[in-house]
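Case study.
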Amino acid sequence: MPTKVLFVCLGNICRSPMAEGLFRHLASQAGYSCVVDSAGTGSWHVGEAPDPRAVACMRRFGIDISNLRARQVHPEDFKTFEIILAMDAANLKALEAMRKEGSRPRLFTEFCQLSAPEIPDPYYGGPEDFERVFRLLHTGLENLIAQLHRG
Ligand code: 4NP
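After joint prediction, the assembly is written out as follows.
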C-alpha cells in the first residue's frame, strides 16, 4: 500500500499545491509510489487553480501544477491520509480543532526536519517569497522521502 500524504495550508493556492506538485515529482524520480493531495483550511479559493505566482515558480523548476484545483479540508481526510502536514502553526491549530478521529496532523517543518519554524505564507509577498517557499519545501520533501524510504 502506498503512503497517503496530505499537505495543508490556508488557501490551497500557494504553499500546499506547490508541496503536492513537488512531492509527486520527487517521489516519482525516487521510484517511490505514493498518493498525494493538498487542501486548505479556508474556503475562499475553493475550485480555483493555484496562484499564477506559484504556477510560475514551479514552472521554472519544470513542474506543472496548473491543473490542480483548490479544495477545503474535509473530516474524511483524517481517515484517508496517514500523513497530514500543516504549513504553519495556525493551520495546524485549525486542523487539530477539526479532527475527531484518524491521523494526527503534524507541522511540516518538524516532521520534515527543517530548522525553519514554518513555511511562510507568500500570498502578500513577491516572487522571491515563492522561491523561498520552493527551497524550503524541496529540502523538507527530500527529507520526507528519505524517511518514508527507510520505512
Ligand atoms: P496559501 O496562501 O495558504 O499558501 O494558499 C494563501 C492564499 C490565500 C490567502 C492567504 C494565503 N488569502 O488570504 O486569501
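Observations recorded in class. The helical segments are 15-29, 52-60, 77-80, 89-98, 108-111, 127-150. The chain has one domain: 3-150. We will return to this complex in the next lecture.
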